[in-house]
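Note to self: keep these together.
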Amino acid sequence: MDGALAAGMWGMVGGSALLLGAATAYFIHLPQRLIAAIMAVGAGVLISAVAFDLMDEAYARGGFDSTAIGFFGGALAYTLANILVSRAGAKHRKRSGSNPRQSQAAADSSSGVSLAIGALLDGIPESVVIGVSLLQGSGVSLVTVAAVFLSNVPEGLSSAAGMKKAGRSAGYIFGVWGAIALASGAAAALGNIAMAGAGADAVAAITAVAAGAILAMLVDTMIPEATEETHEFSGLIAVAGFLAAFVLTKVGG
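Structure:
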């Protein structure tokens, strides 16, 4: 149970970035290019986490078959779910919201709820990864937690901005994001508990499922925002994030 509690705590650390982003949107205004730069760093860190933490670990545990099936299955499941929430109004959930056309779409009250559901969809695979990573007995992957945190800040900012434009109260906005942060912690704890007695193939498959979902999320949501707003430097910024995560992975290992 100690592992589950630790997983829940780290899951909430990653989810707390949603609250940070929401508070930023509610009280101050940040340039969209700055948010996009943060997004590019987060994308680079997440790509590194997928490649060196998740896929390597899945392959070492279960071999190619479990890893490949889980990886593609996770991407497929995320893509189908993402289509549904995007059509419900959450297409721009990773956007900072300063673009007038995007802000207008996000200002619809139903879209605000869809944005929150989309954030939950994005956060579940990330949280499960955090929970499963603690099963190795070597502690949580700080690279993964940092990547999750960086990817959640712009998402909370964008969705909270849309809810505020729709006239939602501060209590409603922070209540929604607080609940999602708690859900992120619960997903990490449940992932740790559910996989505690699982075989190597099952752990490999779940890890690969999360990796596939995260990579699909990056291409669908984070990378387009980063390249649209910081297109001159987005590649360089993402490479810096990737390199930093790579170094931390190797030093930590």
